Amino acid sequence: MSDFTQLWEKRVLITGGTTGIGRATALLLASRGTHVLIFGRHEKELNDAMRDLRGVTSKVHGITADASRIDDVRRVFKTVDEHLGGLDILINNAALGAEGLATMKQEDWEYVVRSNLLGYMYCAQEAINRMKSRKQGHIVQIGSMSADERAKNTSVYVATKSAIQGFTEALRKEVNEMGIKVSLIEPGSVGTDMQEESPQEQLQKEARGEMLMAQDIARCIEYCLIQPQRCDVVVIQIRPHKQPI
């Protein structure tokens, strides 16, 4: 039987927590008694997410911020210190979809790289700075099966998710002796606003087993977080039943 009491009163930061996987994870972890802080780039999405979260618990806080900007990340972690008083769990999730290098403007793919890679690194470093003195903590990084699939016309996205794959593996070894866990989750196709399909088309794909739901990834994240201290969940690849590699 799963021991969800391990999550009670844990202090959680979720990047990109206003939509998709981040929002679903925030709602699930909030229901387990955690203190949750989320951030995203857009006020409307933040307000929508906070309305739903406050229907679950009062132990939530949210701000607008852009993970690609170091000044924004520092402001986020100042908020972490003020409202959470420390950090137990970081869910590094904020990321953007992208196409191939040949079809994107330089400023656009540079922004994707800052968001999808540097944003993870900025947040991980700030989290480690708060976790290492306590000799405990957990960083969960949301990657993508694209790191292995490497499909045509997705070179920019693949570059960032391949980097996250390598970064996470090396980071785990780096902080292991500090008592900090690092896990990588690599989903396949997930029904979120990152997809080109309409919400109705996504629902149909989910029903056919061709697309995952954001809630599926949230439960996978929870699985990583509730393992005993002796257990490290290093990598999980989770894909729709009918999605081949």
Task: Please describe the topology of this protein.
Blueprint: E1 11-15, H1 20-31, E2 35-40, H2 43-54, E3 60-64, H3 70-83, E4 89-92, H4 106-131, E5 137-142, H5 146-149, H6 155-175, E6 180-187, E7 190-191, H7 199-208, E8 212-213, H8 214-225, E9 235-238
Parallel strand pairs: 1-2, 1-4, 2-3, 4-5, 5-6, 6-9, 7-8
Question: Explain this structure to me?
Answer:
- This protein is of the alpha/beta class and 245 residues long.
- The protein has one domain (4-238): Rossmann fold.
- Helices cover 45% and strands 17% of the residues.
- It contains 8 helices and 9 strands.
- The protein has helices spanning 20-31, 43-54, 70-83, 106-131, 146-149, 155-175, 199-208, 214-225, and strands at residues 11-15, 35-40, 60-64, 89-92, 137-142, 180-187, 190-191, 212-213, 235-238.
- The strands form 2 sheets. A 7-stranded parallel sheet has the order 3-2-1-4-5-6-9, sandwiched between helices. The protein has a two-stranded parallel ribbon with strand order 7-8.
- Helix 4 links the parallel strand 4 and strand 5 (137-142).
- The model has no long low-confidence stretch (mean pLDDT 93).
